[in-house]
Design a protein that fits this description.
Number of helices: 10
Strand content: 5-15%
Distance between the termini: 48 Å
Order of helices and strands: HHHHHHHHEHEEHEEE
Number of strands: 6
Oligomer: single chain
Strand order of the largest sheet: 4-5-3-2-1-6
Shape: rod-shaped
Structural class: alpha+beta
Length: about 375
């Protein structure tokens, strides 16, 4: 079943529907009241008053979008007076019923119930007074109709409110996703630039070649960070602008990531095991971001000398393991970095743990569900 869309399944409304309903009810009421004209077409004072009441009720109905509660009371009172004076059963009651539905569907349930109760009590008083045209059956039928209208309006209001809540929830999730992407892109790029710039400054006089190598890495990494930043912010750009065509990063760019994220004093080894073939895009991006954040933390917080990255693609799971020989504790463990990686894994139905190792250093372990069948492939080590 497709999700409920109140914009696509909206009930008739607006000025056109209000004018149409008012015109139809007024026309039918005039035809009904025409039966009370004398043989010579003479209209009694009571007939004139009922006509004026029908015109007033239909006219004030057109103002319900601006003054819904006031229009509700006026239409109920005017319709009640009309039926007390008229001897024909005209369709004017459709107007207050439409007003009741509008009040309920817009969330004014208490006012609508009060008006419906007043209508039922008034009709019940008329039945007990013995007006002739009103009896217990009429009261029962009117009560049933009013309860049905209130229920329909309340259901509609609930479904619209639910749809709006879901839209807000989707917008919030999208903002969180963009925030995670920005943290990963900007945090990684800035950390890499800071580390490489520090290395270049230390080696500028003693080893100009190493300093130049670090500056080259800074240049390439900053360009890549800018490209990813433009792609991430593409969802916020105007529709008239051309969207970026750069594909989202994945494990096929893991070697580039290791090169750009590795300070001169830190080495990174990568081991790939399991199956070959493309990964689901969401899993591929999440795995890339988890490794990216782990390498950034290893260089920035643990000050590790060596990091080992293992990627294993099983039949149903993609397993990531990133271990370093750093200090074993990180200021970033309780920050947004680890929390962002954990949220990425959970969003895919997977798990992620990040904690100091017993033998020293820090370890990140993630399991991301794949789905489908994957055949084993040869083992490759970098």
């Amino acid at each position: 079943m497709s999700p409920f869309d109140p914009l696509r399944r909206r009930l008739p409304g607006g000025l056109r529907a209000e004018h149409a309903l008012a015109l139809i009810v007024l026309t039918l009421s005039a035809i009904a009241e025409g039966q009370r004209l004398g043989p010579d077409g003479h209209a009694t004072p009571t007939l004139v008053v009922t006509w004026l009441l029908a015109v007033a009720v239909c006219g004030v109905f057109l103002l319900r979008s601006r003054y819904p509660v006031a229009v509700g009371w006026l239409t109920v009172i005017g319709t009640g007076a009309y039926y007390l004076l008229s001897t024909v059963d005209g369709p004017l009651v459709l107007v207050p019923i439409a007003v009741l539905y509008g009040l309920t569907s817009s969330g004014r349930l208490r006012v609508a119930v009060t008006l419906a109760t007043v209508m039922i009590i008034a009709v019940g008083v008329g039945a007990s007074a013995g007006t002739g045209d009103v009896n217990g059956t009429a009261v029962f039928m009117l009560a049933g109709w009013l309860i049905a209208v209130l229920a329909l309006g309340a259901v509609w209001h609930g479904r619209v409110a639910y749809a709006e809540e879901q839209a807000v929830l989707r917008a919030t999730e999208e903002r969180l996703r963009i925030a995670r992407e920005l943290h990963d892109v900007v945090g990684h790029s800035m950390s890499m630039i800071n580390i490489q710039a520090s290395a270049a400054l230390r080696r500028l006089e003693k080893d100009p070649a190493k300093a130049a190598e670090a500056l080259t890495v800074i240049k390439a990494g900053s360009q890549e960070g800018l490209r990813e930043l433009r792609r991430t912010l593409g969802v916020l750009r105007d529709t008239e602008e051309e969207a970026p065509t750069t594909p989202a990063p994945g494990l096929n760019r893991l070697d580039e990531l290791v090169t750009s994220a590795t300070p001169t004093e830190m080495t990174v080894s990568v081991e790939r095991t399991g199956a070959d073939g493309p990964l689901p895009p969401t899993v591929d991006l999440a795995a890339y971001r988890i490794i990216q954040e782990s390498l950034t933390n290893a260089a920035r917080h643990s000050h590790a000398r060596h990091v080992h990255v293992e990627v294993h693609r099983g039949r149903d799971l993609l397993t990531l393991s990133i271990e370093d020989d750093g200090r074993g504790t990180r200021a970033g463990v309780r920050g947004s970095g680890i929390a962002g990686m954990t949220e990425r894994a959970r969003a895919l139905g997977g798990t992620l743990t990040a904690a100091p190792r017993a033998q020293g250093g820090f370890a990140v372990h993630a399991e991301l569900p794949l789905g489908g069948d994957n055949t084993p492939a040869e083992r490759s080590t970098r």
